[in-house]
Every structure is written in structure tokens, then in C-alpha cells.
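This section describes the prediction task in plain terms. A model, or a person checking by hand, is given the sequence of a single protein chain and must write out its three-dimensional structure as a string of C-alpha cells. No templates, partner chains or ligands are provided. The sample shown here is typical of the held-out split.
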Amino acid sequence: MPRYALRIEYDGGPFSGWQRQRDVPSVQGALEAALARLQPGDAKVAAAGRTDAGVHGLGQVAQADLEKDWTPFRLMEALNYHLKPAPVAVTACARVAEDWHARFSAVERQYLYRIVVRRAPLVLEAGRAWQLGHGLDAGAMREGAAELLGHHDFTTFRSVICQAASPVKTLDRLDVEEVARADGCAELRFHVRARSFLHNQVRSIVGTLERVGAGAWTPGDVGLALAARDRAACGPVAPPQGLYLARVGYPADPFEAPGAALADGVRRE
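The expected answer:
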């Protein structure tokens, strides 16, 4: 059966998360329902990673095995038609080898987290960022972030229900970017990259760094919390609406290969 890689964008607000669950909406369920319109029987997809309720996808990647040999462009168009009106879209599609796997072939994952400092309600961005009413010291947050880079035991920043075999991970990037906004308010964007993450790791890190930015913690307190290897030493967990799965990296990007289709209508030759 032909295997296809799908790059997926979604608003996580209406969903219980990526993973299919009984009697509640999920991103996986929406995608599988669209696939079922294209071929009889149960259509199953596997993703590069699961996102929690309320978390968004900019570059989630999933795989699907189909009976029909579709051109990537036609498959992308057909899926997007049947996904309506769910806030989910396939933004790229590519034919891949039978042994390629969305999760196990991935070599890195990148997350984006957004904080907007603004007193007035976010109208056009409601549910798309963590809104705070107090200022943050981005420099102090960068100092605290530096304590977490590299290879560590991240037990402190791991959910108690995390199923990963080990709490040891390598954090390759943790940048705090200040972004100019048209409304004149401050926005901080956290760019985080690793081969893989623990459950709630990014949100735990951002929530802890927010305490540093607010002046409740010193940058050095972040290193002490990491060294404690104790979940109780973690700061608050940031809410899900500011988190985006931004990109999944592979040794060879399937969406740059000949024959791949992209959302702008361009087909790779």
C-alpha cells in the first residue's frame, strides 16, 4: 500500500488533543474521518507526536497508508475538502517509502510558545497565546533558559503522568525572542528544539521562566530546580493555548522531495 506523509496545521482549541478518543473530538479523529471518505474501511494515521488539548499544530507530521495510488497534490486537495469545517488543514503531502515513519524517522521536534503582555482582551488571537497583564524581563528569562540547555535529567519539568522510559533529554535550543506588535504590546516567543520531549516539558519550562521574568525567581533558581530532579520544584505549568508544534525534522525532508505538494500549490519537481 502506498504510504504518504502529511504535514498538518490545526487550531487545538476545539479538540481534546491529537489522539483519537471515544466520544470527544480529536485532530486524529478528524483526519481519519476525512481519509475514510476516500477509501472504505478504517483509515489509520500515526503522528510524529501527540499534542494535548488546546495545543496547536503548525507543522505536525502524520503518515497514512492508502489503497489507491494518489498523486500528493490530489490527495492533499481531497483531504482538505473533506476536513471542512474542522479547523484542520493538510499543508503538504508527499509519497514516502514503506519503512518511513512519521514518529520513528524523526530526528528533531521544534515547539513555539507565545506570551502576549496586554491588559485588553485578545480578540483576534483569543486562544492562540498566553495573555499576561504584567511585564516580563526577557533578559532574565534568557539567563534562566541557559540553565536548561544541553543533556540533563528533566524530572522536575516532567508531568507525573509522563510515560517516557527516561527523564534524560537533550535540549538543543531554548531561545526567548521579543517580537514587535502592531498594538504596541510586548510579545515573547520561546523557540524550543530537541530530538524528543517529555510530557508537559515545554509548558513546564515556559511556566518556570515566566516566574523569572516576573521577578519571583532568579535565573539561578531555574538551575536549582533542574538539579532537584523533583516535580515539586517546578514552577507553574503554562497553559496550552500558547503552545504550537512548529516543525518536525527528518534526515531528508519528505516535503522537499520531487513530487511533493505544498499548500501554495507548488509541486516539487
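For orientation: The two ends are 23 Å apart (CA to CA).
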